[in-house]
């Protein structure tokens, strides 16, 4: 692949993996940023810097280690003993977040399309099986298709919001009951959570690409795109009254201001949830295949059964408890990735 085509494909996978149920729907952005007002905007810029810097570093380090799964990267960062604990924790994180994605897909069908939640869940499972059967090429193809469309619609929605009469006032507003410490920590916990999960996809993808220049450019482009999406989504969400009360706040904005493209946007939200789901399942398969000598199709089946069982929980409840908790636990991963000095690597 040429450098820039490869870089944009890597960037699309990076963005598609991070933009999951909470990100694409706006719920996650509200929880970590928008509820803090102008301080939340500054936090977004800090998170964007981390995505640009550490996304590239993660993939370059994966090539240096010739790592086939996130387990090998964690062993380098944490050491052989602590890495076993971290890898087990990562597996629990990935399974839990996959369940959030699957539950979120069902929530989109139920709340926005008036279709039974479980129809949406079964439809998502069927699509997942098809893409997983194709492998890495399927993941590249889905992300390369969905991410540019998501960017376009995000900007369309934002253009209406920034002309809102109260936009400037809402933008500079700082809530009276601001929890400053939480606002300061939020960009670090948010980036840590998403990067620690994204490594499940980015590590094997980077090793397969096996070109440091391509993955570095892909990490930078992906980080910039993530920052742009975060900022544009924040600009949109600050104009929605009582934004914290919505399970899918971005859809509420589109429904009130862009009814003509509402159903298209809901499908895009589903697409972004789906890209994150298949990426995380791909990472889980890479981990399990090291320990279970069976066909990868059976591994995917077992993973789907587990996350299907977990998806019975309510989407909003899962998101509220899992995401912030995982974010804090992932801070150590980001700290080591950022500050651990490089040394000669032996494989």
From TrEMBL:
PANTHER family: CONSERVED MEMBRANE PROTEIN, MEMBRANE PROTEIN. The keyword Endoplasmic reticulum does not apply. Keywords: Membrane, Transmembrane, Transmembrane helix. Signal peptide: none annotated. The chain crosses the membrane at residues 36-56, 88-109, 115-134, 141-163, 217-238, 258-284, 296-315, 321-339. InterPro entries: YkvI-like. This is Membrane protein YkvI.
